[in-house]
Predict the structure.
Amino acid sequence: MSMNEDRVYYIYKDQFQKLRVDFVKLMDDIKSFLDAALSNGLLTYSHKESIMSERDSNDQKRRLHEILELYMSMNEDRVYYIYKDQFQKLRVDFVKLMDDIKSFLDAALSNGLLTYSHKDSIMSERDSNDQKRRLHEILELYMSMNDDQVYYIYKDQFQKLLVDFVKLMDDIKSFLDEALSNGLLTDSNKESIMSERDSNDQKRRLHEILGKKLPDGSRKFVSDLEKSNHKEILELLDDPSVYPMKFKPHGRVILINNVKFPVGSKYNEKLGSEKDVEGIRELFKAFNFDVQLYSNKTAEEMKRIIEKASQESTAREDCFVMFLMSHGVRGSIIGTDGKELSYSTINTILKESYELKDKPKLIYVNTCQAYFEKEDVAQYFNVADLHVTFATVPESFAYRSRKKGSLFIISLLKVYENNKSKCDISSLSVKINSQVSKECKEINMDQISSCYSTFKRKVILRATDSLFSFSH
């Protein structure tokens, strides 16, 4: 009765997953489907943007299939789809309103959202607010998990693991089943692998094929390793000598650029800095960072921006980057109000940030350092896992071209661009110093950059945008 009103198709996820190849083949008008799905509310415009950002039509169809899986059996498995950035903004209110953490943890343990190791980690915090912050941080890992979680595994990193991969891939059949299920591998890939004469040759062939799928296939690869119980291989992917860069984006770049200062003040307008901003944006976008620009800020506004950024860093951000570009004196950066924000204050903000603990922090200071009140920069910065690069040395000026930008940023971009496939931040410091000196000699000036580091491991950034090129 009332069939027209109530009739539904009831499609299960596992049923839909098996149709992936045919779905891609038969979805011959994705635009019309998306229009209909937007019209009836099945998909959102953010879904459409995510789908259409894929590089070709088949990848767009695969992405559509992946998103649609979330809606299979919706009446049975209905969920709230909470996005990471949405949840991040609720951190303060979350801590305030989570008035019964014990009951929440019991429920989360009961339904499998959290594990007992999560609970131990949370309850080991020193007070209730820190427990809530730790809970919030862990829950972020589950926000939009299908969309956002990525292990970013590079080809050269994976190639080095051939011997261990062959040794530890003890159930190739299970792995292949998972890899076929989520589309990481194709049936022809499987046939090529299984045609090898013995199990070790099969594993070597699998390793060879997987290398061609990286880094783009990192998320699916990690999922397949987990589901086929090959966690020892996952552990190998973390190089103990390098800070891990697992997520995409790797984090945010806080770019503070002060250009305009009060008329009649001793600080001139910093003409040409727009070239610096353009180059930094392009470079760090290629390095898989989100760049957030803050222009013309007072000393107090800069302090609040840095405090907010350090508090909002999440467990799914690998690295923290900040550019400070303005006039500078006596161990301080100058705000547009002519007031000073000391490096010591910035150091305290970074040091007191629970969210930035154990993360690599890259700070680039493009200011003059005339009339420095302390000779040793280590007296300003003493935070662990920090690498600070200054445009110049104490009691010196940093030079800038109105047409090209500052000599320090020009030099930094040139060195990083020339090493964009493997940008080892610490080892490139000497090259930056040399390039700054070279740029200055061309205009008969004298400037040398300097750096200070408390890194315990290497930071290696890699440009994945092949369109990136130096434009200064």
About this structure: The CA atoms of residues 298 and 335 lie 4 Å apart. The chain is about 45% helix and 10% strand. The radius of gyration is 26 Å. Residues 199-213 form the longest helix (15 residues).
